[in-house]
Amino acid sequence: MENQAHISEIYDLAVIGGGINGTGIAAEATSRGLSTYLCERDDLANHTSSASSKLIHGGLRYLEHGEWRLVREALSERETLMRKAPHLVRSQRFILPHRPHLRSAWLIRLGLFLYDHLGKRQRLAPSSHLRFDGQGPLQADITQGFEYSDCTVDDSRLVILNAMAAREQGAHIHPRTHCLSAHRSRGLWHLHLERTDGSRYSVRASALVNAAGPWAMEVITDRLGQDSRHSLRLVQGSHLIVPRLHEGQQAYILQHEDRRIVFAIPYQGDFTLIGTTDRDYRQDPADVHISDDEIDYLLGISNSYFKRQLQREDILHSFSGVRPLLADDQGPAANVTRDYHLQLDTDAQGHAPLLSVFGGKLTTYRMLAINTLESLRPWYTGLPESDSASTPLPGGDLSDPRALVEEMLDRYAWLPRCLATRWAWSYGSRAWRLLEGSHDLAGLGEHLGNGLYTREVEYLIEQEWAMTAEDILWRRSKLGLHSPALQANLHGYLRQRMDHRQLMPASK
């Protein structure tokens, strides 16, 4: 293709941004019959949406800030997402150790009562009071606490599944495609785009959604040449991954002297995920890294609660993300609302709407998408109501991934249980596609290490937009935590694969 722009088809909706909000909006739009185009400058879920605490939760601490609507909506969505993606969204019990000087027991009991009853809790166990005998993982001076239910999720896979759902209903999903600029003309948006190979093209759309996350203001001012009534407050959140801190499947929610809370969550079997932090961020969101102060903060709060004392040498991995929050509060970053705001603008004739997303949280992405479509309803004649609450995400058409594991092992006796388990909890019913035509392990291709076979690599490339080792090891899976050799082996396979494709004769 020549390195110049050309005009192609007209879409009902174009979306800039391939995080959870952008892909969720694309999935919602296509489910209602709208032709949809989505572009993302990097990989899907490359930034904020893969740097969360991996939770689907109501936000217990938001009750202290009086955000009743947000908590109620999040609790309701927690149940919905458990139905839509049972292979990604798992129930998780959280223990809140009680430190009387931080929050009184009656206040915590009241908060947990509201947490149990604000939403329609159908699948999760209620909260309860606990007493500790000093024999567990917590410091001996902690004698009581509370327990409640929330959910964990593979955040980046949730993004991928929404992109897949959108594509399977007709959306055009284009990662690694940069929106250079966009302008209104004759009642349409004209988007000028560039792929990583330098080739350029244009698309037109009746409406444009700016879901660029931390770059939403840059899109409005630099790419679109528009003004904005609102602005973003960028807040950095960082996490540590350390060796498993305790036995058992329970997670912990730890109160700090600054009244923030930090989670310590069992992660990927062998590890504990500790986070998050809250600090204002003013640099490039693509270049965010954990600071020394954040490391000290997270290690300090962990060591104040757990008998096992962590040192910097125990840190196996860390990651940071930038939350694009609505700038409505000048107070501490931790107190800024996690709720979302949708800003809608049109041209002088009321055509070519632009909707920009400010804020939001992983748990409520579907409701954000629904409200986006409702805001755009005047421009779409006969737009049907949403049915996404009852529609499984790809692979989610099953009742229990544990039963799927047993079925896979029954039909493929040669399949290692650890591999069947990982596939069931990652791909759900789509795991069967990884086994088609295989009669033994050799049928899965070359083993690159830690249960990653080239059959799975090819599936991720062909079905999930993966291109690099980082895409596969850190966003499509979390296998990068387990083996440094695996990354080298995968790099070698992908390089060999690319060389082979370049040597193949061009098709006539």
UniProtKB/TrEMBL annotation:
Cofactor(s) in the UniProt record: FAD
Keywords carried by this UniProt record: FAD, Flavoprotein, Oxidoreductase
Any Pfam family: DAO_C
GO BP terms: glycerol-3-phosphate catabolic process
SUPFAM superfamilies assigned: FAD/NAD(P)-binding domain (SSF51905)
Record Gene3D superfamilies: Alpha-glycerophosphate oxidase, cap domain (1.10.8.870), D-Amino Acid Oxidase, subunit A, domain 2 (3.30.9.10), FAD/NAD(P)-binding domain (3.50.50.60)
Record-annotated FAD dependent oxidoreductase domain positions: 12-366
Residues covered by the Alpha-glycerophosphate oxidase C-terminal domain: 389-482
InterPro entries the record matches: DAO_C, DAO_C_sf, FAD-dep_OxRdtase, FAD/NAD-bd_sf, G3P_DH_FAD-dep
Example of a GO MF term: glycerol-3-phosphate dehydrogenase (quinone) activity
Keyword NADP: no
Family: Belongs to the FAD-dependent glycerol-3-phosphate dehydrogenase family.
Protein name: Glycerol-3-phosphate dehydrogenase
Organism, scientific name: Stutzerimonas kirkiae
